Amino acid sequence: MLLDLRPKSRFSSLGGNSVNNNAMKYIFRLIAIFASFALLFAAYGGRVSPAIWTLPSLATLALPVIAVVVLALVLLLAIFRQWRSVAVLVGALLLSWPTLRLISPFNIFDPKPDPDKVHLKVLTMNVTEFNWQDSNVHPSKNMRYILDQDADIVVIQEGLVYFSYEQLPTVQPMLEELYKKYPYRKKHFFDVGILSKYPFTEVKSPAINQDSINYFIKAWDVEAPGGDLRVVSMHLSSLRFTFNDSQILDSMNVPSDRKRRVKSVVNKLDYGFRTHVRQVEAMRQLLDQTEGDVLVMGDMNDTPGSYAYRTLCGDDLLDAWAEAGCGPVYTFHAHHLYVKIDHIFYRGDMKVISCRCDKEGESDHYPLVAIIER
């Protein structure tokens, strides 16, 4: 019998596989730790004022994308049976849930309405000036949608800046219906307005004085069924995105162009986030001075979980979508940007029965509709 006198390799095939497996586990764990940190940073970045540090606010804006990546990693690592790495990611998801539920709640069943209580249907919509410059829109789809909803209280943003939308040829065919359905109306010189089935008085407060051409806050005390209701319509400063800003990915093959566009987007976000700090603090001041039931609706130009969102909500405002919506939703859809920046908040002796986002109208924003029980 011949003996094999060749020296054995220090890495047998079995040993080599073991080393490779250990290396892969190490890499997977590093990926899981990094992804978990990114998720938690984005989920709680809204607790840091952008006036101090802007990066957490930028991360919060990316939270939905980061959450999807983490979920994909959970599935991938489960396939490879990397259970420790999976546990790290699942732990991060659970810790992030208080913020994630604001973006994608899972309210499968609507609460059962109480027949002995009053129910109000409310609607908020950025109508993009009823697209008055588009001569092909006859009649206005936005106004048609609003009238068809027959909500009790409607607040609009971007109604028209310099003159009344009631003068528009696209709206005039529906004026008789508008006046009959909403005998109480207010179109302010700038931007925001209210349509109501019930009488109201305008709220005067230094906290809601206009401080720029893109920031409009108005409030009204509505004599609604169930008692007086303060309704606040907000339109925080726009981040001023353009079509070019949304084409960053299309210019990745041109480094100089990519750098310029990325810098432009980051600068706009930085300025917008910092501007929102002042504006939501003013709104919070108004809310702190207000007693009783309150509805805050409109175009915040900021996403759930952001610093502006958290500051405005404080410890007392509830988000109608988080309480009664189901799944992720976006209300802005222009320039390939899909984000939820329109909101309905409430507080007081009320609860939301249902909330939905309708993909209707010709605006670059979709409307939100909620049923409030009081």
Q: What does this entry look like structurally?
A:
The chain has 374 residues and is of the alpha+beta class. It has 2 domains: 14-103, no CATH class; 119-373, Deoxyribonuclease I, Chain A. Helices cover 37% and strands 17% of the residues. The protein is built from 9 helices and 12 strands. It has helices at 13-43, 55-61, 63-79, 83-103, 141-149, 175-181, 255-288, 307-313, 320-324, and strands at 119-126, 153-157, 184-187, 193-196, 200-202, 216-222, 229-235, 294-299, 318-319, 342-347, 351-357, 368-373. It has a 6-stranded mixed beta sheet with strand order 3-4-2-1-12-11. Strands 5-6-7-8-10-9 form a 6-stranded mixed beta sheet. Strand 7, helix 7 (255-288) and strand 8 (294-299) form a beta-alpha-beta unit. The protein is globular, with a radius of gyration of 26 Å. The chain starts with 12 loop residues before the first helix and ends with a strand.
Give a brief description:
The protein contains nine helices and twelve strands. The protein has helices at residues 13-43, 55-61, 63-79, 83-103, 141-149, 175-181, 255-288, 307-313, 320-324; strands at residues 119-126, 153-157, 184-187, 193-196, 200-202, 216-222, 229-235, 294-299, 318-319, 342-347, 351-357, 368-373.
List the topology elements.
Blueprint: H1 13-43, H2 55-61, H3 63-79, H4 83-103, E1 119-126, H5 141-149, E2 153-157, H6 175-181, E3 184-187, E4 193-196, E5 200-202, E6 216-222, E7 229-235, H7 255-288, E8 294-299, H8 307-313, E9 318-319, H9 320-324, E10 342-347, E11 351-357, E12 368-373
Parallel strand pairs: 1-2, 7-8
Antiparallel strand pairs: 1-12, 2-4, 3-4, 5-6, 6-7, 8-10, 9-10, 11-12
